[in-house]
Amino acid sequence: MSSRWVAVSAVVACLALAAPLAAFAAGTDTTAAKATTIAVIAGTPTEFHFTLSKRAAAKGAVTFKITNRGKLAHDFKIAGKTSNMIQPGKSTTLKVVLKAGKQKYECTVPGHAAAGMKGVLVVK
Fold first, then answer.
1. How confident is the model over 64-109, as pLDDT tens digits?
2. Is the dihedral angle over the CA atoms 42, 48, 53, 57 positive or is it negative?
């Protein structure tokens, strides 16, 4: 009789240890679901230039926090989405879902991209 209780206790202990491992394997790891945030500075080092805090990002949800440090209004376009117009000294955010590949970005104010407000973000 006592060997039966030992066997039952061992099975219960194994199940108790297996439950957290099964939950982890099922995708409950929250690090994979975190969105990437990239800071974008418009108007530095020159008026018609963007400076991004990262040159590459993981595919998926990305939030761009755009700050205009220039003297003219600018916006930021990437992956078919465009931010609001950002007045000098102001900030805004743009949330997009990026696919893997090279994603072009630019300011859509006439003449600004031609003057240098454009670039490419590598998405892995």
1. 999 999 999 999 999 999 999 999 999 999 999 999 999 999 999 9
2. positive
CB 58 within 8 A of CB 99: no
Strands 36-42 and 60-68: parallel
Among the ranges given (6-15, 33-42, 51-60), the one the predictor scored with the smallest mean pLDDT: 6-15
The count of other CB atoms within 10 Å of the CB of residue 87 is: 13
Tokens of 86: 């950002």
Neighbour-count burial of 24, counting CB atoms closer than 10 A to its CB (0-12 exposed, 13-18 middle, 19+ buried):
exposed
> Token pair for residue 90?
């102001």
Query: How many other β-carbons are positioned within 10 Å of the β-carbon of residue 67?
Result: 17
Is the four-CA dihedral 36, 41, 46, 47 of positive or negative sign? positive
